[in-house]
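Sequence in, structure out. Go.
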Amino acid sequence: MENASSSQQAAQSETPTFFTQEEFSKLKSEFETGGVEKVQSLLEKKVKELDDTELNIAVTGESGAGKSTFINAMRGLLKKDKGAAAVGTIETTMEPTGYSHPNLPNVRYWDLPGTGTTRFTAGSYLKEMQFNKYDFFIIVSAGRFRENDAKLAKEIKRLGKKFYFVRSKIDADLNSVQLEGGEFDEDVEMETIRSDCVSGLGKAGIPDPTVFLVSNFKKNMYDFPRLMKALADGLPNKKESVFVLALPNDSVEIIWKKREVLKGRIWMLATIAAGVGAIPVPGLSAACDIGILIGAINNFREYLCLDAAGLHRLAGRTGSSVEELKTKAGSPLLGEITEHVIVKRLRLGAVFVAVSAVEAGLHFVPFIGSLFGAGSSFVMTYAILNDALNLLVETAEKVLAITNGAE
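Output:
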């Protein structure tokens, strides 16, 4: 009974939420009339659509609120890193400036001019900032939210977009209170600050606002994890998956959310591989498309911040070289991914353990059952990618522990 329940949960976690019900019904229909070859083009289109999905996030608020630092934090960058948003104590942004994610160029954070600057009035702000381009707005304040913030929120709501209030620099505020001496209770102080923000926004005409208290330098503390969940939950499925993949690996929970998203792509890639025809693997009685495997594993590494650029940034956090970090992580998938690396994994036999779990967990896809069989390219591709993803997730967890230990 317990095994059946586990299998059911595993299947539910892999439900292809990237598809609408109409798209999924079309997949079934196309397979019934034309087989795997007919489905292949639809899946290739879906994978490309996921890769090309754009996400534009506006970050606004009064000057000096820490917008640029917040943008860097969301992209996993420090101000010294290449491509980081300019950080200063004066207003450094005079027009919307887009900052692409290091690995996902279609994900952009837009640093908007402060709402309190003399250049813009509250009435003209959204028009000049090209309101319609953004998926949602994050309104940042380093202190009390002001009248301009409330006016902006009202206008965003009127125009049908979502917004989130973020109170930054909470660590500095709590530290100041603690230095004053006397009895200190962090939870009580946070609730006092939150209540003050909520009260101020309520008086300005925003009923029952949710305010997230964050530190851009302590992303596992305070309300930062809760903010990430709220931002993801507020997006449609396709954009939610892109947002999750764009998050820096700040916690094990984020790494596992990425794993869940990427597992949802594996069956599509495996079906595409089954449609293009199997290529024998030298020295083994197995066949699969090596090109699809190499491309997918490289993409997994990028999403999990384990590509060359990501490792370079993480090595800088630990004060070690990239090679030292690779040695500590001890993963065979951190070097160049070649046919030799894949064949070696196959010869080790590691991937075959996953095949039975694959067979049990994909019954929700109408045509998957027919793709299983001895020597099936689908089975081999799925098993190899499943094995690679699990190994890379373990590696990402190790790297996170190494990074946290060095801080």
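Check: The chain is about 55% helix and 10% strand. The chain has a mean pLDDT of 81.
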